[in-house]
């Protein structure tokens, strides 16, 4: 019987609690497979976004709907001690406000009927080295921007005839080129805006150049106003969100939506689904061992990342079947492992 290393490795990531190593997987299997076999599996294959779609497609077809959301976002996983390469290099992490050394991933998460499925991903690579004029330090850059990658991924989903209506994005992707591309593909966008974006409240104001910063507009929570973003021709809906931060301060989020038929409350409710991508990141980092692999080469590192993403999908399928979230499922496995370990300890003590 041929070993399905893909399923075996991802089950190992889900059930394990430490670093994911070829030796560890071999030991878990009672040395029925060698660590060399696992290493060859990670080294010789190339698991891509296209292959991810092949694996998740049948499940997507079961849950897809015309009003589904496609959520785009990127994440940085810091790996301080791993050797630098075009993939394992310095990326700006907006969560900490500085550049860190590690992995940068762009992800497309499909959300429909309370099910989250990763349908595409791209690992950001920076093969081109250059010298910064100001600091004279050597830096790296990508050959294609994340915005261009996102548009390519959207086109692929359309080619795959995926059903969805809204594309949700943060401020990083709120570019005119993205808005024009999405609308041209007969989809709608809901995106967060930086506070300094300029907005005209009427067509006359637009023609007269009477734009004002979105953060200067007097809007209450979930209130909407139609108008025009500077640099983008079509009329849009601007929606204000006001919320209380953990420290008690007041936060403001400005959203722009291409579907001008919606109410502000409806736009807010749809955009709240973007939180699902944060749950995705939390799960792949804590439940799928994203950063817990000592792999050394670009190929093996990329394949391990694919395995972590695919492990999330497997956990999502288990969530549907057993009505437990990813962390509850993992806790159930951990309790069972502790029970087995405890019983084995008792046997060793009585021997």
Structure explained in plain terms:
The structure is a single chain. Helix 2 packs across helix 3 and helix 9 packs across helix 10. The protein is α+β, with helices and mostly antiparallel strands. The strands form 2 sheets. Strands 1, 2, 3, 4, 7, 8, 9, 10, 11, 12 and 13 form an 11-stranded mixed sheet that branches. The chain has 11 helices and 13 strands. It has 3 domains: 100 residues, no CATH class; 118 residues, no CATH class; 105 residues, no CATH class.
Task: State the domain count.
Answer: 3
- What is the number of beta strands? 13
Give the helix level as a range of percent: 40-55%
* Element pattern in H and E: HHHHEEEEEEHEHEEHEEEEHHHH
Write down the overall geometry.
Answer: globular
- Are there runs of 5+ residues with pLDDT below 50, and where? none
- The gyration radius over C-alpha positions equals 23 Å
Q: Classify the secondary structure makeup into a structural class.
A: alpha+beta
| Whole-number mean pLDDT | 94
Largest sheet: 11 strands, mixed
Strand content: 15-25%
- End-to-end distance, in Å? 36 Å
* Tally of helical runs: 11
């Amino acid at each position: 019987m041929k070993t399905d290393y893909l399923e075996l490795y991802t089950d190992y990531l889900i059930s394990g609690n430490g670093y994911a190593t070829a030796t560890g997987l071999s030991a878990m299997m009672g040395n029925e497979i060698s660590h060399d076999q696992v290493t060859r599996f990670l080294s010789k294959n190339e698991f891509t976004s296209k292959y991810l779609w092949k694996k998740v497609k049948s499940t997507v077809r079961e849950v897809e709907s015309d009003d589904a959301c496609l959520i785009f976002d990127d994440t940085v996983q810091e790996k301080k001690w791993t050797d630098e390469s075009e993939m394992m290099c310095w990326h700006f992490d907006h969560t900490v406000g500085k550049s860190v050394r590690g992995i940068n991933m762009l992800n497309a998460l499909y959300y429909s009927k309370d099910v989250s499925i990763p349908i595409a991903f791209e690992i950001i690579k920076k093969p081109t080295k250059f010298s910064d004029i100001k600091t004279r330090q050597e830096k790296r850059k990508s050959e294609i921007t994340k915005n261009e990658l996102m548009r390519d991924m959207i086109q692929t989903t359309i080619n795959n005839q995926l059903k969805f209506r809204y594309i949700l994005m943060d401020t990083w992707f709120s570019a005119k080129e993205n808005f024009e591309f999405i609308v041209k593909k007969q989809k709608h966008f809901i995106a967060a805006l930086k506070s300094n974006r300029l907005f005209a409240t009427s067509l006359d104001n637009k023609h007269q150049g009477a734009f004002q910063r979105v953060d200067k507009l007097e809007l209450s929570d979930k209130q909407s106003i139609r108008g025009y973003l500077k640099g983008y021709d079509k009329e849009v809906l601007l929606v204000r969100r006001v919320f209380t931060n953990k420290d008690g301060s007041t936060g403001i989020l400005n959203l722009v939506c291409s579907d001008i038929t919606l109410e502000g409350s409806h736009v807010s409710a749809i955009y709240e689904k973007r939180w699902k991508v944060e749950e995705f990141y939390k799960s792949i980092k804590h439940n799928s061992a994203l950063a817990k692999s000592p792999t050394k080469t670009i190929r093996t590192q990329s394949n391990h990342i694919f395995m972590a993403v695919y492990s999330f999908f497997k956990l999502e399928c288990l969530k549907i079947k057993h009505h437990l979230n990813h962390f509850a499922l993992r806790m159930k496995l951990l309790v069972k492992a502790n029970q087995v370990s405890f019983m084995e300890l008792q046997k060793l003590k009585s021997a």
